[in-house]
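hey m, so remember when u said the tokens were messed up on ur end? i reran from scratch. heres the input so u can diff it against urs
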Amino acid sequence: MFSLIALMLVGVVAVSLILLRLRQSLLVGYFLCGIAISNTGLLDMLAGEDATAAINRVSEFGVMLLLFVIGMEFSLKELKHLRRFAFRGGAAQIAITMAAAGAAAWAYFGFPWTQVVVVAVACAMSSTAISIKLYHDMGIAASSGARLALAIAIMQDLFVIAFLVLLPAMFGDGAAHPMGPQLIFTAVQGALFILAAVLLARFVIPHVLHAVSQTRSRELFTLTVAGLCIGVAYLAALMDLSLVLGAFVAGVAVSECMYKHRIMSEVGPFKDLFLTLFFVSVGLGINLGQVADAWILVLSITVLLLAGKTLLIGVIARLLGLSWRAATTAGIGLGSAGEFSLVLMGKTSQLTDWAGNANQPLLAAMALSMAMVPVLMDRAPRIWTFLERFCPNFLHRQRHTESVAAQSAPLSEHAIICGYGPVGQALVKALTDQGVASVVIDLNADTIRKLQSEGQAALFADASQPDVWDLVNVSEARLVAFTFPATSAVSSAMHLVRERNHAITIIARTAFSNEAGSLADAGANIVLQDEVETSRAVIDRALGALELNLSPRQEES
């Protein structure tokens, strides 16, 4: 077993170094590493079936820790802000994808209904790890497309966690009995477990963590966190519930405590290690010969999955009133299968045998679809440019922009504020105090409604849409301020502004100093870099506290 683990970790490092240079997901590398070990004879040389089974058991910790971290990151407040995207867009994407994938799995493979449902759910999941990283790399993490992707991802996570709870019942000893009473019994058990977890979260866990933190022992804190995760998961197992539900609830239980970020930093490395072993173990079960024999099927599934989900999410985005840019980035980002797709397929393989080893081409296609996302995202600008040029109004609902067009039309000599976060709020207040009229552009419907009720001109719209700048009368404006640090999205919007008003002053913000030049080239008169501005404020406050003045050199910098 230890020789196999050593080979797996060395292989993962080697494959990951190559994939990083190719800008591919490391998750795909873990999967490929398992395939390589399994199909080169190394697995038979170093270990037998007992070692492989032991690896599977150890790697389960990775899934538990993944759910624990997801539970800590889960935020009801964030879900409330994104509820329009989540409950409409997310629910529609999951339902339609499941219906199409389930019908295809039943018609082509002839699976029993339990395996049909697993394939349907696996196809409905997406890789948020890949998409979120790509959004950050492109500088569009704060864009409407990324927000839609995040909302859909939250719904996917909630759905798959609930499904993982039911998975043992579908394939276990109770699978031959009527499911209705069993599901009701499981739901009651789940409610009792969640009640117990709430009581622990309120009256026990904070005091335990506080007592441990007082010892100032990092080792003890790490052991406490591990014990908390495994202990609550074991409590779920004692109640005949899923370990993953227990781990998720444990994460939610500590999500609101003051030690949340420290817990995440302690758990992160262990999660990465054990989850790596899990994805490698999934690859160990792939027979490359069977996949090669079905290569046409693998490619067909990959193309259908990517094209179908990308198109579906794009249509949903348009119906929700988003631009082609947002629709394209959200669709491509969530077009592949995801981490939970491999988790579901792997756990199902442990519970039952797939008819005709049909899981082999399915797993290969899911991994291949994940590898294709970065390649497709590189071509996203060409796609949305084409769509904006030849079908700008297709499926687009302009209800929100039209409803506020009237309040924007009379404005002149005004300021346009893109983004109403903390920076945008402070800027609008300062302008109002000075008697300068302003109009806000934001993608939070609740924020826009609140501003409109207060008499503030506001537009629910995407700044990358050309018609938005006509609605806010940018040709008569004096200032445009982009208050969010999204270089790619802001650069595109600035080109639209400059086309309509060459003399206007544009203020842009960036999180990274190496992006300031590209924003200036795109048309920004003033570029504020977060770290530079923060350092200036810290220096000013520190010297003020010491009753010192800035030196001439510091003033120039």
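this time it looks ok to me. The chain has 29 helices and six strands. if urs says something different then somethings off w ur setup not the seq
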